[in-house]
Amino acid sequence: MAKDLISVEGMDCEDLREIMDLARDFEEGRLHGTLSGKTVCLAFFESSTRTLVSFDLAARRCGADVVSLSEKGSSISKGESLADTVVTLDMLGADAIVLRHPAVGAAKLASRHTSASIINAGDGCGQHPTQALLDLYALSDSLGGFDELEGTRAVIAGDILHSRVARSVIPAFQTAGVEVALAAPKTLLPLEAEVWNLPILDSVDEALEWGADVLYMLRLQKERMTGALVPSVAEYTKFYGVNKRHLRAGLKVMHPGPVNRGVEIAGDVVLDEASLIAAQVGAGIGVRSAVLALATNAVEAGVAA
Amino acid sequence: MKAPNTRSGESRELVIRGAHVLDPPSGLDGMMDVKVSDGRIAEVGIGIRGSREIDADGLHLFPGFVDVHAHWRSPGQEHKEDIESGAAAAAAGGFTSVVMMPNTDPVVDKPIVVSGLAKRISEESRVRAYITAALHVGLKGERLTEMRLLKEAGAFCVSDDGLGTQSAGVLRNAMLYAKSAGLPVILHCEDHTLSTGVVHDGAHAALAGLPGIPASAEDVATATGLILAAETGARVHITHVSTELSAALVGFFKDKGDISSDTTPHHLTLTDELVSTLDGMYRVNPPLRPDDDRDGVGGALRDGVLDFVATDHAPHASEEKDLPLEEASPGFLGHEMAFPALYTELVTGGKLSLPRLVEAMSCAPGRWVGGSGSLTAGSPADIALVDLSEEWTVNRDTMASKSSNSPYVGKAMASRIVGTIVGGEIVHDIHDIFSGAKFGIRA
Questions:
Q1: Is-catalytic flag, B312?
Q2: A80 in contact with chain B, both atoms CB, cutoff 8 A
Q3: CATH number, domain at A102?
Q4: Are A121 and A136 in the same domain?
Q5: Domain extent for B153
Q6: Are residues A104 and B326, on separate chains, in Cβ contact within 8 Å?
Q7: Chain B interface mutation, best of A46, A104, A128, highest count of B Cβ atoms under 10 Å
Q8: List B219, B312, B382, B429, catalytic entry
Q9: Helices A277-295 and A50-61: crossing angle, nearest 10°?
């Protein structure tokens, strides 16, 4: 893996497999303490629960010194620019900076100003690469191995337009051999969604007709639930929500969280055995440990096994 | 303009010998001599001699360029640009006349601001500068400005540039009033209910996750502006046309009113592919568009549907551009790289003839401001001397502007502005050809 993880662009199938293998070594306890002596800075300028906590735990369990800063209470709130903040962290000895920021391109900008590794933990509606990696981990686990991803059909449903998760999951899944389709109303798709060259479906029912093995549901943000983009929660849920009726043998349901129960996923589906939501969260620490270790050269790719 | 800085004992006469003179409307196209006397073109022909001569063999001589759209940031944002640096940037780009936009701080919406600007222009600008006053107070699209008083104070035209008037009814009244005040209206066409993003709403916005500005945001407002221009008969200039459809709309309405239009060097040469870099440098409004729009706008300029080029020179300090694209200030430097970029990309690329480029940068905008952009005898001696064979690379550290936000930084250019003359005064002389150091002044 390169020094920075800004997006999954440029990764090939073997790169993904290596991260998965290394993540498994961390998860199963074969690797530990690999980041001892390293400093990881968690710079989260936008709220986060699971991403922040799992990066924090991943870094600590690997023995890194961890420094956290958020917009509130940091010099960012005093008007310091992102570039200056990154330079400061670099000067204080950060080996890796995990960055969550509300603007697309923040991680890329940060990488131009530091020699520390920049790990993109979400930049606006841009990219969220570690989410896509842990999704691949959870999905391949449930299917019985990384090679089982080849030819699997996944439909990403919901607010593609505003989703950094979709922008990372689409290329990551495709690189791993998964066939991808999208399902969303036009108001929640980019104007030129055909740039992805993927089937665009109009409901969860159509997704099942297309032969989906995986329904990857995106969160519908509250402020978009009613009004100009979607007429009502009821109409959205009827066409783009998954419920018990949709569950058939072998179907997997995924979601990056946090879930709007009863909107994109019915409450009784969240904890159904078809749901990989808990497994996705569970994959976070191992995958993020692997990413931190590879980015900081704490382990060589291919070393573990 | 600054007082003439002629050295004592020198004649006000100058003969520029042997340049390739090009002034399409007057039919001049060939190796000729140009005699300047008392700030005006005295004579253009062969075998002209004078007491002070320079040898311009190998150079091209055009009427000075005229930029009908520039932000010199004064008053209030002088960390980006001021009148002196804006004028220096213009001179370095071969521009001899510039029209300044009113979206400053304070906005140019009161006569006292106009007269203050006029005074500072006379003291600080080495090129001709025209003042655009706001069309509405505070550019808010509500209350009309005191257009007749603004005109008396020195305003040349009116515009809500930077934002655009949002209500068609309000805009219609403003056009009617501007017509009776005798002021041209420059229209920035943008519908804010559609324009909620930061880059063109296309494939690159989709992939990057950047909020998009659809072409319709410009096209809807352009159609509105053109319909109202035709109906009111006001003198209306549609600025920075960036889409193929808006150019076609201009073509449809052109002979239905007193209508003119321009497009910019960057919309003619660059596309939205650049936003995939996520670099704040490439945020500009209207946004860079896809190939089809760039080519459509280029074809419209070539065919004369769009009348001329204006740069939308928009300086920003580095801290306002070195940001994630969504947070960066929109705009590019325009003056210094306009001709070299267009010559390199369009003329050497076979998409635009050199005479049409000179027409679009000098003659047509010169007619729009009146009395500029011509080499006929008696015209102001406003001249650009250009070396079409000089190759150079744009360097951010050598800009005449106070800012360096040019999208062409690092790009190779195939022509260079080597001299600029305004009213007979030398305001730009990059290779010291006028100082006598290189060519020698012959008695």
A1: yes
A2: no
A3: 3.40.50.1370
A4: no
A5: 64-369
A6: yes
A7: A104
A8: B312
A9: 50
Same domain, residue pair B269 and B307: yes
On whether both B234 and B143 belong to a single domain, the answer is: yes
Token representation of residue A231? 């007429």
Confidence of residue B436 (pLDDT cuts 50, 70, 90): low
Question: Are B315 and B338 a contacting pair, CB within 8 Å?
Answer: no
Domain identity same for A144 and A74: no
pTM of the model: 0.92
B311 plus B392 within the same structural domain: no
B436 within some domain: no
pLDDT range class, residue A226, cuts 50, 70, 90: low
The three-state (H, E, C) secondary structure of B296-362, written as one string: HHHHHHHCCCCCEECCCECCCCHHHHCCEHHHCCCCCCCCCCHHHHHHHHHHCCCCCCHHHHHHHHH
* Residues A167, A196 share a domain: yes
Q: Extract the tokens encoding B92.
A: 């370095």
Report the domain count for chain B: 2
Partner B contacted by A81 (CB < 8 A)? yes
pLDDT per position as a tens digit, A131-162: 999 999 999 999 999 999 999 999 999 999 99
Checking if the pLDDT of B4 tops 60, the result is no
**Which residues of chain B does A108 touch, with a Cβ-Cβ cutoff of 8 Å?**
277-278
Between the CA of residue B321 and those of A15, A100, B208, B315, B327, what are the distances in Å? 34, 20, 18, 10, 8
Q: List the domain range (segments joined by +) for residue A176.
A: 129-281
Residues 55-114 of B with CB under 8 A from A: none
Q: Inspect the interface and report whether the beta carbons of B322 and A125 lie closer than 8 Å.
A: no
pLDDT band for B435, please (50, 70, 90 cuts).
confident
**Distance between CA B205 and CA A193 in Å, rounded?**
10
A96 has which bridge partners? Answer: A40, A117
Least confident window among A30-39, B132-141, B206-215, B428-437? B428-437
B280–A104 C-beta distance less than 8 A: no
Nearest to B203 among A105, A124, A195 (CB): A195
Last residue of a domain, one of B346, B369, B392: B369
Structure confidence by residue, pLDDT tens digits, A239-283: 999 999 999 999 999 999 999 999 999 999 999 999 999 999 999
Query: Are the CB atoms for B295 and B206 separated by under 8 Å?
Result: no
Report chain B's mean pLDDT, rounded to a whole number.
Answer: 94
CATH code for the domain of B56: 2.30.40.10
CA A196 to chain CA mean position, Å: 18
Contact list in B for residue A196 (CB cut-off 8 A) is: 206-207
Residues B169 and B92 in one domain: yes
